[in-house]
Amino acid sequence: MPLSLASIHRFPVKSCRGESVDSAVVEPWGLAGDRRWMLVDEAGSAITAREANQLLLVHPELTADGLIVAAPDLPPFTISTPDPRTQTPVDLWKSELTAAPAGPEADAWFSKALGQPARLVYLDDPTRRATSPEFSEPDDRVSFADGYPLLVATEASLAALNDVIVERSAGAHAPLPMTRFRPNVVIAGSEAWAEDGWRRIRIGDAVFRAVKGCARCVITTIDPDTAVREKEPIASLARIRRWDGATWFGVNLVPDTAGVTIRVGDEVEVLDAVAPGAGPIRPAV
Fold this sequence. Notes:
Structural class: mainly beta
CATH class of the largest domain: Mainly Beta
Order of helices and strands: EEEEEEEEEEEHEEHEEEHEEEE
Distance between the termini: 37 Å
Number of strands: 20
Shape: globular
Number of helices: 3
Number of domains: 2
Strand content: 35-45%
């Protein structure tokens, strides 16, 4: 079965609900519109769904001028893209940079949605944030994604993981949807875990480097429809996908082409690969 692009997902606000789209422009720092907005606390540090589970219930929708956001028990709210001439310091993991503040009204709306003080910021210039030099090139850049511009996952790997989840629970646990893993692109037609060995792939006319496996965190254990945390999929990943003290699902990508549009149904070709038996690319220990 030939490989193909099964779905495309972008996440306008980091850690909030994503959008499924039929096509997307590939920019150097990720898909157009993906994770350009982020919530920060009063000190400017990123707020993510790891600690603020309610973020997963916030539904942002990109507009020509900014965002429309919705959340349970709150009216929808329209946010304009802020003026980039005003900047505020923010930090995300090891990155320290500046972003444009969305303003007090947006901050008040998100603070109500999260039940804690929060400020919304916009990354007007993604060239400010470099990727990890250990797994990328000096000129590689990323928006407010955790570390790299895109995440790829495969339908076959999710099916293999769900087989384990269902078997371990004796059928009591339903298979998990791909939304638990928040990938940007999902590939159909591969063998399970084949992506571990990918080094360069082509999706339509866009070429990507596969630079690092994705170590999974507690966000995958939070039901995106209820914000309730459970043990899966980390419990089952720990049995079949544990290396170096972490569990792994999906692979981080860096674009080598920019300005190209990818579309659902595009042909996918593996340009360079190694045998996947050693697991994903990961830090040396």
